[in-house]
């Protein structure tokens, strides 16, 4: 038979302090776990990008909504270059305000190794038109010329995609 001996601390000070410390550390641990779980759920999910890929209403919004890794957007001679190792969502790449309607020609080189992406034109009335769409099997290093009819007012080009990896996009505006 095992004999148990209870030792009572003086005036309960140690027990109370230990209980309080244990309670605080347990609370902190729970907060850390919940925070990590939320972070993992939002960081690993691209469901928003899949849902919004065909939603002209969402695409036309002035606010961008995206998650990307190792990306560079820079001005190049006559246009812009955009690269990203991973991309999900929608991001504005170009904005131009014009006084009257006009046509512009844009040369696109658009590649990716995984996923689905497109460049869309959004006119001043928030109408959305797909200019070029890219899948791994339709990727090209060669330039494809597209004509975009700008309307008076604010015009935008956005990249929209999900599950994208290794994006390499070049947009060169013809004179």
Describe the structure concisely for a colleague.
The protein is α+β, with helices and mostly antiparallel strands. It has three helices and seven strands. The model is unreliable at 16-22 (pLDDT under 50).
Task: Tell me what the structure shows.
The chain has three helices and seven strands, in the order αααβββββββ. It is α+β, with helices and mostly antiparallel strands. Helix content is 23%, strand content 51%.
Give a topology summary.
Layout: H1 13-43, H2 47-52, H3 56-59, E1 65-76, E2 79-98, E3 102-111, E4 114-122, E5 128-134, E6 140-150, E7 153-173
Antiparallel strand pairs: 1-2, 2-7, 3-6, 3-7, 4-5, 4-7
Instruction: State the shape.
Output: elongated
The biggest beta sheet is recorded as: 7 strands, antiparallel
| Helix-strand category | alpha+beta
- Our estimate of the beta-strand percent is over 45%
Tally of helical runs: 3
Integer average pLDDT: 85
Total strand count, please? 7
Radius of gyration: 27 Å
Question: How do the SSEs run, as a string of H and E?
Answer: HHHEEEEEEE
Uncertain runs: 16-22
Into which percent range does the helicity of residues fall?
10-25%
Terminal Cα span: 96 Å
Entry keywords:
seven-stranded antiparallel beta sheet, 23% helix, 175 residues, single chain, alpha+beta, 3 helices
């Amino acid at each position: 038979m095992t004999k148990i001996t209870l030792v009572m601390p003086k005036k309960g000070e140690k027990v109370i302090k230990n209980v309080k410390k244990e309670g605080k550390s347990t609370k902190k641990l729970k907060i850390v776990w919940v925070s990590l779980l939320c972070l993992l759920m939002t960081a690993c999910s691209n469901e928003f990008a899949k849902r919004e890929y065909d939603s002209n209403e969402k695409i036309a919004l002035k606010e961008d909504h995206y998650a990307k890794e190792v990306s560079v957007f820079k001005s190049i001679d006559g246009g812009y270059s955009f690269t990203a190792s991973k991309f999900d969502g929608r991001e504005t790449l170009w904005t131009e305000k014009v006084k009257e309607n006009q046509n512009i020609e844009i040369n696109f080189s658009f590649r990716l190794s995984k996923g689905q992406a497109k460049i869309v034109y959004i006119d001043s009335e928030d109408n959305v038109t797909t200019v070029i769409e890219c899948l791994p099997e339709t990727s090209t290093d060669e330039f494809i010329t597209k004509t975009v009819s700008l309307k008076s007012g604010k015009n935008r080009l956005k990249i929209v995609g999900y599950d994208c990896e290794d994006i390499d996009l070049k947009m060169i505006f013809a004179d």
